[in-house]
């Protein structure tokens, strides 16, 4: 379910339904970047997005690469979120090339990181999306939507309970042209044991490119210096392309 968080944020940013804009294809064998071409995006932009995304070489020693686990698309949650944010206009219908990385897991297995890269024909497309997800109501609407999904759709193991989800806008060092970050905290209890699962979603705009770095972590969020180093590597590849 943590992967529903960036899916919902993407849905708001693109002004589209949860499943719009993606091919639904699973990553190729070997964990190579999985790419979907949206609405006739130029092949050059698809290749550009692929070159920018995370690779295992970007991580410290001890991290491993795994094929992407299935994304979670909840159309009802997306509709609820868009209604909460008063987004009633038609879905975006402009070309956008996207590429998503494999999952990268830390040595202790506590952290899983992956990237999404979008390349638009013009920076205005990305800017409008950034303006939407920067809105004052996004955090509370996300929390409301996730609470509903956990209560309605998620089948948890016997004895497992999920507490009230907290979503907060995070302060994050300026990276690229513009940076927006959210942290989702999901309290989980199994018997007498309780842990917090954190999902950090960092969205960076660089011209006509958006990069979403997502980290799911048990116990404590990924250190900012680690996530920022990963973002800088991707931005450097974007500048060099």
Let me know the largest β-sheet. 10 strands, antiparallel
Fraction of residues in helix? 25-40%
Q: Could you tell me how far the N terminus lies from the C terminus, measured between alpha carbons in angstroms?
A: 34 Å
Overall 3D form: globular
**Helix and strand element order:** HEHEHEEEHHEEEEEH
Into which percentage range does the β-strand content fall?
A: 25-35%
The count of helical stretches stands at: 6
Could you describe the 3D structure shown?
The protein is an alpha+beta fold and about 240 residues long. It has one domain. The chain contains 6 helices and 10 strands, in the order H-E-H-E-H-E-E-E-H-H-E-E-E-E-E-H. The chain has helices at about 5-15, 45-50, 75-85, 125-135, 140-150, 225-240; strands at about 35-40, 65, 95-100, 105, 110-120, 160, 165-170, 180-190, 195-205, 210-220. Strands 1, 2, 3, 4, 5, 6, 7, 8, 9 and 10 form a 10-stranded antiparallel beta sheet that branches. The model is unreliable at about 15-30 (pLDDT under 50).
């Amino acid at each position: 379910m943590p992967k529903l968080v960036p899916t919902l944020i993407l849905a708001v940013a693109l002004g589209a339904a949860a499943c719009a804009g993606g091919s639904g294809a699973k990553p190729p064998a070997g964990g190579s970047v999985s790419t979907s071409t949206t609405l006739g995006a130029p092949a050059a932009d698809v290749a550009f997005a692929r070159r920018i995304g995370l690779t295992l070489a970007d991580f410290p020693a001890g991290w491993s690469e795994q094929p992407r686990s299935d994304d979670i698309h909840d159309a009802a949650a997306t509709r609820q979120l868009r209604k909460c944010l008063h987004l009633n206009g038609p879905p975006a219908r402009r070309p956008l090339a996207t590429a998503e990385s494999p999952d990268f897991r830390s040595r202790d297995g506590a952290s899983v990181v992956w990237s999404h890269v979008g390349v638009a024909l013009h920076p205005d497309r990305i800017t409008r999306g950034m303006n939407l997800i920067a809105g004052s109501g996004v955090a509370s609407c996300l929390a409301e939507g996730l609470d509903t999904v956990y209560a309605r759709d998620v089948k948890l193991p016997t004895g497992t309970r999920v507490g009230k989800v907290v979503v907060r806008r995070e302060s994050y060092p300026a990276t690229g042209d513009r940076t927006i970050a959210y942290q989702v905290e999901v309290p989980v209890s199994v018997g007498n044991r309780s842990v917090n699962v954190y999902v950090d979603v960092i969205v960076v705009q660089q011209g006509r490119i958006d990069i979403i770095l997502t980290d799911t972590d048990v116990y404590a969020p990924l250190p900012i210096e680690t996530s920022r180093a990963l973002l800088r590597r991707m931005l450097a590849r974007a500048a060099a392309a």
